[in-house]
Amino acid sequence: MVHIHTEGKFNENTYLIDGMMFSLPGNITIYVIENEGERMLIDTPMSLSARKIVKKLKELDLFPIQKLLITHSHFDHNQGWEKLKRIFGDLEIFASESAI
Prior knowledge:
Order of helices and strands: EEEEHEHHE
Shape: globular
Pfam families: Lactamase_B
Low-confidence stretches: none
Number of helices: 3
Radius of gyration: 12 Å
Domain Metallo-beta-lactamase: 25-89
Mean pLDDT: 81
Structural class: alpha/beta
Protein name: Metallo-beta-lactamase domain-containing protein
């Protein structure tokens, strides 16, 4: 298994962003998939890290995000969705009921 630890683009349409759990680097990963001009964020940071993630998205020219996929209901994967929804506005969310 290959582990990618460097933020940024790592293949044709996929980016890795450090989720900064508890404001500590290197302990959670968030992905962005870009396809035909639309971007999907996979999982969210914790609420405290949401603004840092938005800053990183802007640095990587991945702002705004149009879609959000929440994989499951653990706090380190879904806690920041409401804050991101306020930031992005028209954000389409894909998740099970238990994930949000």
